[in-house]
């Protein structure tokens, strides 16, 4: 008898200053390692995007954040794809030279990676992105003309035949800001991440199509002292390559129960393990999956600005110190081995104590119904 595929979900929320996954693709090594010990790894662009850099995972599923929330709630399924036709949407606010840099990156992806890109679409109005920081330190942002983005996405689908959409919006250049300098030196929150998530959420929510975003910015002056974790964003004119590579094989979304036909479709009830930072347990996807049979694994040394633990929310979770330990926990879970059996603190079992009369009545009723 063939066992079912072991499926894990790796979540590192964007824009919350995660010490691993809060920078330019620095959670990719984690994703690569976890993918090697599971059959299917579902994760999101914040984990897999590394600006100019990316890594193809044959068993990885690149799922935008809003879609991941819908998947976790059981409302949407994931249908694996070998290839998507991608349409590039460019913000009208992007200057001509910067636009050409992004178009050349798209052509390079066609010529060197063999990706399937359609003709591009330009928004009819500048999107006018602004950046904000919450009191917690998390980043967020606004778009003055979301209607222009949605009209462009509709054109991409109807006129260009898009099966996935890559958006490039002109973001504010803020070279001298303290937030940007902290981020470049490995001690701050990505100032762009919150606004980027808003852009992709809009498109996915409206059209139920894979989407990811790359910001358009002028190149920064050379700084020899930047952190290795942010260095991927320093080596080119655009962050687009990783987005195109991710979208090329991103799963399509099954948004109706009537669509449950191919056996390859993936649904939330098939998720075996969910790996999260220990202080970022409050996301919609985590709350949904915590109500299922999935094993929640919380990683203590991936610190964030959120400070919301599984215990704070009454979520049962296995807390580990590092992603190295998380990989071991996944291996044990997959093998059906209790984690406590792998420690020297294994004590003798005791008698199960009754917690209260109401519980006893429930159990007796359940027992009598089975007899």
From TrEMBL:
The lineage of its organism: Bacteria, Bacillati, Cyanobacteriota, Cyanophyceae, Oscillatoriophycideae. This is DUF3326 domain-containing protein. It comes from the Bacteria. InterPro entries: DUF3326. It comes from Oxynema aestuarii AP17.
């Amino acid at each position: 008898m063939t066992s079912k595929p072991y499926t894990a979900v790796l979540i590192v929320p964007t824009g919350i200053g995660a010490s691993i996954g809060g920078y330019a693709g620095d959670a990719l090594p984690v994703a690569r390692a976890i993918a090697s010990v599971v059959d299917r790894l579902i994760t999101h662009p914040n984990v897999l995007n590394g600006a100019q850099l990316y890594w193809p995972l044959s068993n990885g599923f690149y799922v935008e954040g809003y879609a991941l929330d819908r998947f976790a709630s059981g409302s949407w399924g994931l249908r694996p794809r070998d290839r998507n036709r991608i349409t590039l949407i460019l913000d009208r606010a992007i200057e001509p030279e910067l636009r050409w840099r992004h178009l050349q990156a798209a052509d390079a992806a066609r010529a060197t990676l063999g990706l399937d890109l359609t003709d591009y679409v330009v928004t009819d109005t500048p999107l006018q992105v602004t950046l904000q920081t919450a009191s917690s330190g998390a980043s967020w942002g606004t778009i003055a003309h979301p209607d222009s983005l949605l009209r462009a996405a509709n054109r991409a689908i109807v006129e260009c035949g898009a099966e996935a959409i890559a958006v490039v919006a002109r973001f504010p250049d803020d070279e001298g800001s303290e937030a940007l300098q902290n981020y470049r030196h490995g001690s701050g929150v990505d100032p762009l991440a919150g606004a980027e998530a808003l852009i992709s959420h809009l498109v996915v929510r409206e059209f139920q199509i894979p989407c990811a975003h790359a910001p358009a910015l002028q190149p920064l002056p050379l700084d020899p002292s930047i952190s290795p974790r942010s260095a991927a964003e320093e080596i080119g004119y655009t962050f687009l390559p990783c987005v195109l590579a991710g979208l090329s094989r991103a799963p399509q979304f099954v948004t109706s129960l009537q669509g449950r036909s191919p056996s390859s479709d993936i649904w939330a009830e098939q998720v075996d393990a969910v790996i999260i930072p220990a202080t970022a347990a409050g996301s919609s996807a985590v709350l949904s999956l915590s109500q299922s049979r999935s094993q929640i694994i919380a990683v203590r040394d991936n610190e964030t600005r959120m400070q919301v633990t599984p215990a704070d929310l009454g979520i049962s979770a296995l807390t580990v110190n590092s992603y190295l330990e998380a990989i071991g926990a996944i291996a044990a879970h997959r093998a059906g081995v209790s984690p406590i059996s792998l420690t020297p603190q294994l004590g003798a079992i005791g008698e199960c104590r009754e917690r209260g009369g109401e519980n006893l009545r429930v159990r007796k009723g359940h027992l009598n119904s089975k007899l």
